[in-house]
Amino acid sequence: MDIIYRTGREEDSLKIAEGIDRASGGIVEFLFHDLLDQYTPTQVMAKSIKEKQGTDSYENAIVAEYQGNIVGIVYSYSARYHGITDNTRSFFPNDRLTFLKDFYNSRVEDSWFLDSIYVDGAFRGTGIGSKLIELTKQRAKDNGYNRLSLMVMADNAVARRTYERNQFEIVKHIDVQEHRLIPHKGGIYLLVSNLNDNISDNEKLGIMT
Q1: Is 81 left (phi over 0), alpha (psi -120 to 50) or beta?
Q2: pTM score above 0.85
Q3: How many Å is the Cα radius of gyration of the chain?
């Protein structure tokens, strides 16, 4: 299968936002629920990504493209940006941020953070997810980081197996109460991978810019 991997572009912003939404396990829907009249959460996120508002940017993404269509995305940045910002506080109700306080307050310091990864259903099992993780590890190293961190729903067994195969280890369990808009049980795990052990500086990963 001829998959092209490249850095995200401005015109990819909506697809990137859709991938972030689908990868969130309901967290995006929980945060935005009933707050928007005219736009969808993905449209709002896409605008921020397209216009590079705050720490958002289409350049944070790596996309997998097949025959001109984006079939997978990964979105990442320095872990120091994972948290509740002043803009977040001014937009979302305080009770929702309090509900997710442990989620936002948990991170691996001095790591690169894989915020979201999503592969279209028809392309799962083809190695795209692992390739996107591999490319994100290289991006982390290119930015001077020796560790890559991420979060995964505790009951997402398929994703957890993928991360285990890619040398991630659990470092923390984050308690998130059950909610009808976040249809997962068991909370969230914070994982980390030591890049010094897993990626050679000379390894060729084939990313296009």
Answers
A1: alpha
A2: yes
A3: 16
